[in-house]
Every structure is written in C-alpha cells, then in structure tokens.
Amino acid sequence: MQAYGWSLPTSKNSSQPSNLTNVPVPVYCRPLFKEETNLRLSCAANVNYTFDPSCLPDSLNFDDLIKNSQFNSFKSDSMFKSSTIWICNLNDNDTHISIFDANKPGDLVQQFTLKSLKIHSLLPVTGVTKEDMDETEIKPDLTNTDSQQASIQINKNELSDNLDNITYIEVENDLNYSTASIQSIEQDVQSPSSQQVVLSSVYPTIWLGSQEGLLLVHSTISSVNQTIDKVKLNDSILCMSQQNGKVLVGMADGTIAIFQRSPKTHEWDLKNFYTINFDNAHHSIRCIQSVHPNVWSGCRNKIYIFDPQNLTISSVIEVHPRKENQVRHLSSVGEGVWVSIRLDTTLRLYHSKTYQHLQNLDIEPFITKMLGISNLGLSIVRVTSMTVANKRLWIGTGNGVVLSIPFNQSNQTPLCNLNDSQFSFHGHRDAVKFFLSVPCEAIQKSSTDKTGKKFEKTETMLLLSGGHGYIDFRIGDTTSTKNEVRKTDEPNFNFGPISKNDRSHLIVWQINEH
Questions:
Q1: Among residues 208, 203, 268, 246, which one has the least CA distance to residue 44?
Q2: Closest-CA residue to 245 (of 319, 313, 317, 309)
C-alpha cells in the first residue's frame, strides 16, 4: 500500500491508523548545482534567529541591522528557527557554502567559498538572550574522586604536566593558523565598509568547524561571508552543540571545548575556554547532544553524560560490547535519546533521566523487505543520518533510503513500532548526508472563521534530506528522464533538472502537525 511516494503500514500490529494526513508529502527535488560539478556534500544546518534585542549593548543598533539584512525570515516578528539553510560542499581543497530558503529551494540566496578549508560541521547559534546573561561561569568540580572521573585527562594547560582534569586555554592574539588558510579566508571575505553595520556575535550566528581544526564564526543576518571571529583548536572539528549560554565543540582527539559568552560584552569568548577529555587513547568525539541539564557525547562505543557547569561525569553508558562500533548519532526528544552506532543496523533508545535502555529497533529486515535482496546487492545497511522531527524518527542510510517512523504518543518516551515504519520511494543513489526540519511559509497556528469563532489550524513543517544523487526505488537505479520520473503518483512533486549522475540533491517533504 502506497501514498505520496511512501509505503503505508499494512500490518495488523501497527499502532498508527492508516491516515493519509499523517503521511509526509514530497513537494520538491533538485540538484544543488545546475551545472556538472565535482563537489561533495558535507553538512548542512538551518539558522536559528532566537534573540532578545533588549539584551543588546548601547553600541549596537538593531534597527540598522534589520535594514541591512537580506533574509526575509529574519525580518519577521517571530524570530526563531527559520527556513534559511546553509549547505557545505567540498572539493579537493575548498568549501563552497550555499544559502537557500527552504520554502524556495530553487532559488539560491547567496554563495561563497572558504579556500584551503574543509568544513565538516555547522552549528546555528542563537543571539544573546536573558538566559545567556543569567548564565553563571563554569566552575569545575575537582574534588570529585568517583571512579568515573578517572577517564578524564588531567591537564592544566597544553604545555605543563598533568595536574587537573580541566584545561583552561588562553589564546594569544597571534593565532597559530596555517598561513595558507588565513590568507585564503582574508582574500575571499569582503572588507566591511564604514557604511555597514557592526557585526557581532551578540546577534545570531553560525559556527563552522573545519578538518584543519579552525573554528569560524559568521553572522547569519548580514555580510554572511565575513568571519566575525575565529580560533585554531588542536584537532579536526567533528561535531558541535549549544546548550543555553554554552557552545560545545567535539574534536578528533577526544577533546570537547566549551565556550561561553563574555560577561562584559555578551559576545562569544573564543580566547578563553575549557576543554575536557574522556578517553586517554584520544579517540574522536563523533556526536554531542544537549539533554538539559546534561550533555551526552559519543566516544568510541560509549556515551559520556556530563554536567557542562561543573564538568563532572554523571554516567557512562556502554552501548555496544565492541569498541570499534562507535556511537555516531544522538537525537533527543521528550524523555528519550535515540542512538545510532557505526556498523550496526540496530538503533537504541535510552531514557534521558534514568539512562535506562528502553528499546532496540533493527531496521535492516524492513529495508531488505522493501528493496529486495536483488536491489540491495552487496551493500551493507548502515545509518548515515538520523534526526527527530515532527513527532517522528527520521533515518537515512548509506544506500540512500529514507525511513520515517511515527512515535507512540502514549507517554513522554519516544517509543517506535517498526510496523509503523514508512519507506520513502524517493531517495538518494548514495548516502543520506543530513536531515533538516524547518518551518513552512504557510504556518498558521490559529485562525478565525466568518462567524468570529477561533479555531486551530494545522501547523505545516518542511523536512529536507540531502544526499548524493536521486533515485525512485520503484523504477530502480537508472538514468531516468524527468518525464519518466513524473509517471509516479505524486503530481504535485516539483522536480528540478534531475541529474543523470551522482550530484548532490535535495528532497523536500511537507508535513502536517496535529
């Protein structure tokens, strides 16, 4: 049974009704670039415009900033998670950044290049809020002698002997970048003129983490190709997360850097920050997830749960018996955290407060059933992306499959029933690299009819997947023309110029929330 390019549950064991209003509707598909290119999709993020203008210092003019912003979504009365998305593509040496509005994915808003840098992680960071201003300074607890603390490396600074389990780093003005990277950034970024507004990390920003260990901060409002601030870290930056007035950066050497705002200017202080390390062998931090009030981080086959205020570990969860099976993705919703593991098709759900293991979800049998062994070939089902959005668990695999599983809403834990799984016949030829959930332009939470009676209307969201190439699994892995693809049962699915190769593609679904 199918609808809108999705398989529908047919099992009697399904806990979800067969309701077409609960099915994501595909609305757009297009390659990221019109011309043939060797660019490879790296990462993406949608901007968060959460911001409190009353927290601005007198030296900054908020009205001038709005006038100079080219992003309509920032000029709206409600500033929060927006439909503006940043997408990074790599070639052999550089990162090409494209900015779109998800409601108009066919139109490129802006594009620029960071030369001699490979960006592998993006993080949208909110502007300053009253909660940020009330945030207290990090105070490491060095008195805890619990055995779990022994896994934290003890360093006072980068040059001294091991003395404490926290490193407080003071970065000199003369940052130790590679000369090529600095020159490339300065040449590629326009110099601000005297008529432009002053850019500041007090406003909403986006953080870019590179393979070279360079962390860049850019504005998401105006002059987006200008670097506001930057710092060189010890190793490649693999993941980032924000929790209130803190930004956490995970690196390939097993270190997490924690940044705070300056108490005087309320700008992000990249010159003074703490670092912690959970693994003496320096294995990489692959994912970080804020699960208030704690932070969950994946290192090898374990999840380290720690307090970002005093930097003490509250628990360590071993999610797999083999150390080479690394934790790759963490997604939090309600009182649960979903976990994916490298080289493992079974997703795991843990309680966010008790850390209890609640559920296993093996997706391989379902995908094999839908694709067939002949279509699956010798490829191994592996999870390459995962997110929680619109009361669903979204899963992307290395062979381009997109799964959507509604949550069981009977309680606060996001349990899933595999019998409710929906398989998208619209997918990618290769790995699904990311999912983004953004508000639709047509959002309207309440309305009034002709009689003056108020009623609630459906809230509409967009879910975007990015990956290499496009494929309709009902047709197979062929170089189908646009007209052939249009023979499917989604007449409102707007195709861009479908590519005959593995260029990066965007697929956009519209979802109604009830």
A1: 208
A2: 309
pLDDT, position 286: 95
- Of the listed ranges 71-80, 229-238, 463-472, 500-509, the least confidently predicted one is 71-80
Closest CA to 285 of 121, 418, 407, 396: 121
96 sits in the region (left: phi over 0; alpha: psi -120 to 50; else beta) called beta
C-beta separation of 126 from 50 below 8 A: yes
* pTM score: 0.84
Q: How many residues does the chain have?
A: 514
The CB-side HSE value for 72 (13 A sphere, CA atoms) comes to 8
Tokens of 311: 């930097």
Give me 237's structure tokens. Answer: 């930056």
113 burial type by CB count under 10 A (0-12 exposed, 13-18 middle, 19+ buried)? middle
Show the 3-state SS of 68-108. HCCCHHHCCCCCCEEEEEEEEEECCCCEEEEEEECCCCCCE
Give the helix/strand (H/E) hosting 274: strand 272-277
> Dihedral, CA atoms, 351, 414, 286, 145, nearest 10 degrees?
-10
Laid out side by side, the sheet with 302-307 consists of 285-291, 294-299, 302-307, 312-318
DSSP E strands: which ranges in 171-236? 205-210, 214-219, 227-232
